[in-house]
Amino acid sequence: MVGMIAFLSRLLFRLAEIRKPGPFFIVMVTAMGSSTQIPLSQLPATSLAVAFGILIAIGVACCLPSSTQALPAFSFKEQLNHDPAALLDALFYGAILFFAVYLSQSFHLHNPYWLTVSCAAILQGDNLRHMLARNNQRIFGTTIGLIIAALLLSLPLPTIVMILMITLFFVTVEFFVKRNYAVANFFSTPMALMLAMLAKQQYLYSLVQYRFLGIVLGSLLGLLAAWLMTTVLRFYNRAFHLHETFEQDSD
């Protein structure tokens, strides 16, 4: 399921020339949903909470200033003829994220979507050098973030305080994610661990251990996938005399 949705979203977003983050959040939500086990009796309440969150997000988005310029009309068939490498890119993207899910399930990781999301985050880079930098920054930022999380979660924090800190961390991550990716991970890691503790009441040691393992494995897998994709596209360019790169556009 994750691989299929990743393939379709990657293909459609590239053909529609929608800028980043593109399919990343679609993949993230799908990976989280596929690894979450919810009792049938709790499904209505959980669905209602998700719907309420979506409505809040839509309401906030409507309050933000946006462009009134009409979107240009385009044909997916024409776009695919113009950009044939999009299909190859989407196939590879879906396949590597399918493998990431398989790997996380095989290792029986708690919160296995951390590995998949980390892999998808690395593949957001514009080129191989950018992805290598993101890989190093993500691992370094996660290490510092785990130390911060261990210090905070060792304190007897009330639930309301944890919710307020999660909100503050989220705002901080959004501020730094385009300015300094490593610093953004200082705060995304404690935010993720606090959410996990509130949702499942897991032990801190196991959370820190599995978070670090998932981030490192996912980042390295994403970097390896980027290198393979770059190599494949290099041969593809030589065979068809094209000038494709791993990403069609860069931000």
TrEMBL record:
Entry keywords, A to Z: Membrane, Transmembrane, Transmembrane helix
Protein's cellular compartments: Membrane
A GO cellular-component term linked to this record: membrane
Pfam families: FUSC_2
Its membrane topology: Multi-pass membrane protein
Residue ranges of domain Integral membrane bound transporter in the record: 100-224
Name of protein: Integral membrane bound transporter domain-containing protein
